[in-house]
Specification:
Elements: E1 21-22, H1 26-34, E2 35-36, E3 41-42, E4 54-55, E5 64-65, E6 97-103, E7 115-118, E8 134-137, E9 146-147, E10 151-152, H2 162-186
Parallel strand pairs: 4-5, 6-9
Antiparallel strand pairs: 1-10, 2-3, 6-7, 7-8
């Protein structure tokens, strides 16, 4: 990335600050998988529990994940990859390993250093679904059983276009003027 580009961030060479879509970093991925925003609690498994999930070849049942399957089975479809995390995200445990934006050393200061992936795959054991399992490889190398999850900006409350704002302001001013004239006429 060129330091002259809009959105350049010297502290993170992997993500332009103006990006609308990106690979989740270590914190974003971890929070989506293990954090329950309602109870402000982190769990051992991406099913909102400290108890091992039930191994399934596919499905959406609560407390389930796609792991421990025969290698030849392959991953489940993305919309059938186990129960949801407390954040409402499916397939963060098992199914396929997922790349993170973050480098293994957590610094993101070189585009050639190893980047991490986590979550386990359909043929792995339940231990790979835990938050402590994080593997890495160079970004230029394809890793079998590994995919990626794309994260995106959450839209902020809609801000009216300037022309809409002006129209609302003029309408409000006109209403205030009529109200003031009525008050003067009544007294």
């Amino acid at each position: 990335m060129d330091p002259g580009d809009a959105g350049y961030d010297a502290d993170n060479l992997y993500r332009n600050s103006l990006a609308e879509y990106w690979l989740p970093d270590v914190d974003e991925w971890y929070k989506a998988a293990y954090y329950d925003p309602d109870t402000e609690t982190y769990f051992e498994y991406p099913t909102g529990s400290n108890t091992e999930p039930t191994s399934v070849p596919g499905g959406t049942g609560e407390g389930t994940a796609v792991f421990g399957q025969d290698f030849g089975t392959g991953p489940a479809d993305v919309d059938n990859a186990g129960g949801l995390s407390p954040y409402g995200v499916m397939g963060l445990g098992g199914n396929v390993w997922e790349w993170e934006e973050t480098a293994t050393d957590l610094l993101n200061d070189s585009t050639t250093e190893n980047r991490a992936y986590r979550g386990g795959s359909w043929s792995n054991s339940v231990g790979n679904l835990r938050p402590t399992t994080r593997l890495s490889e160079k970004p230029s190398v394809g890793v079998f059983l590994t995919g990626l999850r794309v994260a995106g900006a959450v839209p902020v409350a809609t801000i009216p276009e300037p022309s809409t704002f002006l129209a609302m302001w003029l309408l409000g001013g006109f209403a205030m003027l009529i109200r003031k004239r009525r008050r003067v006429a009544v007294t």
